[in-house]
Amino acid sequence: TQEGWIVRQGELYALTALGRAEAGKRLAGLRRVRALAGHLLRPQTVSQVSLGVHLGLAALKLPAALLSGSVGLLNDAADTLLDGLSSLLVYFGLRLNKERAVNAVLVLVMLVTGSFALYEAVHRFLVPFEPQVDWFTFLAAAVSALVCVGLWSYQRYVGLRSGSVALITQSVDSRNHIIVAASVTVGLIASLLRFGFLDTL
After folding, report:
1. SS3 content of the chain, % helix, strand, coil (to 5)
2. What is the pLDDT of residues 19-38, one digit of tens each?
3. Cβ proximity of 1 and 16 under 8 Å
4. Verdict on whether the full-model pTM lies above 0.90
């Protein structure tokens, strides 16, 4: 009553003109939040967010990998770039209603990424190299892990909610990035201890 939003009328309370205006503002705010939440839960929005996240992570991990020479981080960065491509495919697959075709392409992309990682690991095994690890390398691995935890949860929730197999497939890949980030970190620590072979593994 002090703000002048309500007035007492006998045993009841009623909104004043100021109170109705304030209630209208609050309701409008709630409607905006609801509309934003609805937008964020659309599969197309998830694919757009995934694309931005992958490009951002790739921009962070590629310089760190090239500066340190870590094969683990280099493969992870290359995989992240390919994930950006897969996000584009999912987005257009959802728009064009071609999810099944997109799923097949996503599996092929994962196969290519895995083959590239295997080639690099075998090459480093035959030609040993000691990675140069610094704080930036660790930062790239840590940020990647934390961001992928959020992305995995987001993709999985919306994928299950909407029944989008492509998004669920992407969520599995994001979960794998968490595991990769952990293994890359272990490899970096081993490199600091002069056991660079673990980074190759």
Report:
1. 80, 5, 15
2. 778 778 888 888 888 887 77
3. no
4. no
